[in-house]
């Protein structure tokens, strides 16, 4: 076996201590889970943004709100989060407007509460599993560093019985230990980048949802006059 073969990644992992191998296995599992949620959340947020744009275009085209509500109620899964917020608000508005003992302010407040509750559920759904990406991004480097420290300790312990240590004796042990840090960073960097991007996109969607709630509340209020 040549020196290059001794320092190949697979060879280093195969000759690493059991603890380092377990750390590497954990980091690989975390990395795979991170990429799974990166793709899942990326597609979900992209779909939510596209459906939000489509619903805003339809809403501001000036169509009949009652007809729009019936269309949304018939296809709740396909209209996206903003459509479901609209549906909740209009449904509550129509129900309360049929009660003669309520003031206009009570009707609008009820519609706003219904929209706010749906808004929070939609936001929670968009944010689901992003905390995992944040945890993976923050913890993975430290897990890798633990593997590196343990590997270096194991390497120097093995050299304790050797009278004189040469670079060729030290290098493989140090290299296999540093693999843990490298894989820890490999697991952390995509998770951190994806989390920051998703947080930004979700925040922008949340702002659009909040603006719509205020504008829709004003429209409903004008219908009561």
TrEMBL record:
Domain MotA/TolQ/ExbB proton channel intervals: 82-210
GO cellular component, one term: plasma membrane
The keyword Cell inner membrane is annotated on this UniProt entry: yes
GO biological process, one term: cell division
Localisation: Cell inner membrane; Cell membrane
Keywords (A to Z) from UniProt: Cell cycle, Cell division, Cell inner membrane, Cell membrane, Membrane, Transmembrane, Transmembrane helix
Sequence intervals crossing the membrane: 12-39, 131-153, 173-195
Entry annotated with the keyword Iron-sulfur: no
Superkingdom to which the source organism belongs: Bacteria
Database matches in InterPro entries: ExbB/TolQ_transport (IPR050790), MotA_ExbB_proton_chnl (IPR002898), Tol-Pal_TolQ (IPR014163)
Major place of residence: membrane
One Pfam match: MotA_ExbB
Membrane topology of the entry: Multi-pass membrane protein
Similarity comment text for this entry: Belongs to the ExbB/TolQ family.
HAMAP family assigned to the protein according to its UniProt record, in alphabetical order: TolQ
Main function: Part of the Tol-Pal system, which plays a role in outer membrane invagination during cell division and is important for maintaining outer membrane integrity.
Subunit architecture: The Tol-Pal system is composed of five core proteins: the inner membrane proteins TolA, TolQ and TolR, the periplasmic protein TolB and the outer membrane protein Pal. They form a network linking the inner and outer membranes and the peptidoglycan layer.
NCBIfam families (UniProt xref): tolQ (TIGR02796)
Name this protein carries in UniProt: Tol-Pal system protein TolQ
Organism of origin: Niveibacterium umoris
